[in-house]
Amino acid sequence: MPELRSQALQLLSLCDPSEKGAAVIALREQYLQGGITINAEERLTEADFDIPGRPAAPILVNPGLVKRRSMVTEEGRSVLIHALAHIEFNAINLALDAVWRFPNMPKEYYEDWLKVAAEEAYHFDLLNRHLQKSGFKYGDFPAHNSLWEMVSKTTGSILARMALVPRTMESRGLDALPPIQEKLSQAHDQEAVALLQIILNDEIGHVEIGNRWFNYLCQQQSLDPILAYAELVEKYDAPKLRGPFNYAARKAAGFTDAELAALQITETN
């Protein structure tokens, strides 16, 4: 019977986004039907794989070189949708990496990140299909690699991974999506607004998963979550959070009042 973590590593190496997304969704379905085992103890290696698998396009550039264009034009809106699709593609990869890389976690951990991978694949497909309606496709515009760079920094520490990828990088999406929805609504792209609402609702759950496993690990290691998070941000040079913040979404994603206060995130900012 196929094993989940080794399968996740193989899928991570796939380059074609549509092929990868379909395979991830099929893997989760197979797991839910009882056709996949989990070996949490095995220490896997990426030595025989080129990860993450990604297509030749888009070209990856410094974040400052990713152009912002007017939302008034269809191309400008497509640039934005493309940027979001790129984030979702990277998010498939980061979820697969969380599954295969870290051994000796409860089976619920692997189930959670498999669920995240499948939902990110669904999000990518939604955005890419919307992009294609405007005559574009994923790969047509440059993109940056900030999300995967943080994944790469945290390969040696599951605590750092949970702290700095879902709870930091992905949590920024909770803040960013509502203003983007507002701009798209003003541009009369209600279909895109609806797609982003699906994504926002799911992303709250993904950040909650990161919060839950970060707190689990802190408890296992007798660490104070607030102090541990601050130390990890400093150690790994994580991006500093900037407002405005989606306080309600962050609360729904499991951030405690004390954590939000430590991050200076309030209902009014």
Structural summary, described in words:
It is a single chain. The protein is an all-alpha fold and about 270 residues long. Helix content is about 65%, strand content about 0%. It has 10 helices and no strands. The chain has helices spanning about 5-10, 15-30, 75-100, 105-135, 145-155, 160-185, 190-220, 225-235, 245-250, 255-260. The chain is globular, with a radius of gyration of 18 Å. The relative contact order is 0.11. The mean pLDDT is about 95.
List keywords for this structure.
single chain, 269 residues, mainly alpha, 10 helices, 64% helix, 0% strand
- The SSE order reads HHHHHHHHHH
Radius of gyration: 18 Å
Distance between the termini: 51 Å
Poorly predicted runs are none
Proportion in helices: 55-70%
User: If you average the pLDDT, what whole number results?
Assistant: 95
Give the overall shape, derived from the CA principal axes: globular
Could you give the count of β-strands? 0
